[in-house]
Amino acid sequence: MAGSVRYIELLDNLFEPPHHGFMPNEFKFLDERWDHVTANPDAKNFKSLARAAFILLAYGTSTRLDAILAEAKRLHVDKNAGYAGADNPDPWANFRLSTAFGVEPWRGAAVRLSDKYIRVSNLRKNPDNDKVGESIWETLRDLGAYCLIIVCLLEEEQG
């Protein structure tokens, strides 16, 4: 099976109720979490940003959070097979390629995360900015996923 056991564990333990300070369908909390991540890129802040993205996704689609997290797990395994290889024992092999350019894997993933954040911001301003068929909800899902990937890579780096 492709994928990271730690990533799945993070998804399983992402939500500790209550979710203080979060209002459904409001992006303010996401923006605040983004500010915390850029000021202090540590595992705690990336988890918080992932939590905000997945909660927004749950409220935005009127779907139960459990179903969204189950889909996130399945998507992680499927995408990991495509990017790192189903038989590869290293689920983060594709992110490690950034070292060829002198960039730590977690920082390479953070660049991809920033692409997702700016896409969410631009789609919030004007839904007509979607020219490739990737909805704001799909982008939020990817944003949350990148956060958890970064947590895994940071934890690995820090031993």
Please tell me about this protein's structure:
The model has no long low-confidence stretch (mean pLDDT about 85). Helices cover about 70% and strands about 0% of the residues. The longest helix has 23 residues, at about 135-159. It has seven helices and no strands. It has one domain (about 5-159). The chain has helices spanning about 5-10, 30-40, 45-60, 65-85, 95, 105-125, 135-159.
How far apart are the first and last residues' alpha carbons, in Å? 24 Å
Q: Report the helical percentage.
A: 55-70%
| Number of structurally distinct domains | 1
Q: Give the averaged pLDDT, no decimals.
A: 85
The largest sheet, given as strand count, sense and whether it forms a barrel, is: none
Q: List the secondary-structure elements in sequence, H or E.
A: HHHHHHH
What is the CA-based Rg, rounded? Answer: 15 Å
Shape verdict: globular
Percent of residues in β-strands:
under 5%
Tally of helical runs:
7
Helix-strand category: mainly alpha
Would you identify the regions where 5 or more consecutive residues have pLDDT less than 50? none
In total, the number of strands is: 0
